[in-house]
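dumping this here before i forget
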Amino acid sequence: MSFVDTLRQWDEAVTCVDRQDFSQALRIFLAIQEPNSKIFFDIGCLHLLNQDLDAAEKAFDGSIRKDEHLAIAFFQRGITFYKKKRYEESLADFQRAFKALRGNQLIDYKALGLRYILYACDVLHNMALVDAHLGNWEKAQGHLMRALDYKTEAKFNIIDNALHSVLKQKLFKLVEFPSKMLFKPNKHYVAELEKKDYLGKAKVVASVVPQDEFSGFAPLQPQVKDGPTSPKEPEVLRALEGEPHTVLFEFVPETSDELAVVPGNIVFVLQKGADNWAYVVFNERRGLVPYNYLERLEISLASKKNKGITPPPSREPPTRPERIQGLTPSETSSGNRQRKSPDNSCIVKVHFVFNFVVSVPRGSPYVILIEKISKKLNLPSTAFTLSLTSEASGQSVLNANTDTEKLWSRASGGRITLWCNAKEQTDGKPQEEEIQLVALHSYESSNPEDLNFQQGDKITLLSRVNQDWLEGQCNGNTGIFPASFVEEAPGNGQ
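structure:
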């Protein structure tokens, strides 16, 4: 089924839901041959509305399988497990939903086609309820106390009432997602489904110059002496960011960080990963597209002289490249895409002020490991300590005398997690101050891993992802953002 057909059926189904014809909407959804993550989610919501919990669970499984970062899908599957009284699985899904929030107070899904805001305090509220069902009243109280840190004014009474119930060891009401609220297809895509007459009615024109025998359908051109021999390349083309490419094959996204394109679209490649995926911009939207679906385009108009229109490819599209699993979209979009670790290498995830990964040969001595991390942080190895646990104490601290065989035996699936702690300065030198940035322009992104801010906001720099992207903190939220949108605030380092 083509992307256009899928889009048409998706739009038809949500229209049925708007007029309360849920059974017809479900029939249309189930007829879609290759549902994406959002369509699977919509199917699950309709099954949940019909109290068909087994079918709802299966649909939310499909949604999560297509997009492992979709927090709202974990939230809905957690509600499904709760209604099936499978409390341990319900708690695990609520925990995954909270983790997908990445410390943010909320995720607004409006930009993705769902008019719903998932609040962190609602997720913690439901975690507390599940723990209450399991008899873990102290854990339930802890979740609600933590929810107070994430609450908004509108959510204060809900958390406060739940906390009073827990203190009396009484159950309280579950926060549910409105199942009639569904992901809707992009309105710009839907508008393109209607045929448009861009030419209008033909109008014959003729030159007013008596000696000019031309007549036809093209508009008259200014007649000048010694005109250019070839068309001038528009300045706007040279000002666009990235390398222009033509889309050869239709690509239907399977996750929220991928971008839907069709043959003939012109995309601009910002970064190309080693795994044959490209991070592109198209119509002011950014996302991932297989690079083997693209062909480099020469945008100089002069190079196209005397060339006809290239017909669309008749062959089948190439095989979809394998996506890297286990990395967050921010690591993907910022160009830090890494191959799966081969048998002789290991991915080391390091918890610091921010999280990052390095790849080192499995069994490497401490000096190689510390050198890799020192280079990543741009700090001397004497400025921090590595440990196996979050608290750098006792035998958890790594040093040159550490038994490397014991260290690497902790690796699972080619991965190991370490903690990095900065040492306090003891030589009288002041510790490095935080770098403050000021937003030159407002930045808004639909990706939950990005940091949104308004012009003039103050941002604390956490790390430099690369020369184009930074990671920072603003208004209690943490994420990545373009370096060109900010400048260093006056007074830093003074």
